[in-house]
Design brief:
5 helices, single chain, 6-stranded mixed sheet, 23% strand, RbsD-like fold, alpha/beta, globular
């Protein structure tokens, strides 16, 4: 058994398989899963775990080069943007329309579904390299 880090075997394997510029989608409970994107469903119940809980753990495992959120997050999930700004102050955060966010999510290598039920609590992580 793993001693530290992500102990969910499916999530751990997916994170280990990510390379530079790959996209990892962290979604709320209601976000549609694009065809062909591997779903790792961590939702337990409404509100748990939150997208931010998952991102906090994922950030310990991979290099986060960039973050992409929906423009609509500003109005509906301002707390998420504030959290991202606090926890990723040196990472470029791009804001795009939600329709474009959905289209881009189809390019994800994997999608991790949270139990978040707050609208627009979705983040696309662009993976970096540690050198």
């Amino acid at each position: 058994m793993k001693k530290t880090g992500v102990i969910n075997s499916v999530l751990s394997g997916a994170l280990a398989g990510l390379g530079h510029t790959d996209l990892l989608i962290l979604s709320d409970a209601g976000f549609p899963v694009p065809k062909g994107v591997k779903l790792i469903d961590l939702a337990l119940r409404p509100g748990s775990p939150r997208t931010t809980d998952i991102l906090e753990v994922v950030n310990q495992e991979i290099v986060v080069e960039g973050l992409i959120v929906a423009e609509e997050s500003q109005e509906h999930s301002a707390h998420l943007l504030a959290w991202l700004g606090t926890h990723f102050p040196d990472v470029v955060m791009e804001r795009i329309p939600h329709v474009e966010f959905k289209r881009l999510s189809a390019s994800g290598k994997a999608m991790v579904r949270s139990g978040d039920v707050l609208a627009y609590s979705n983040v696309i992580v662009r993976v970096g390299v540690p050198y």
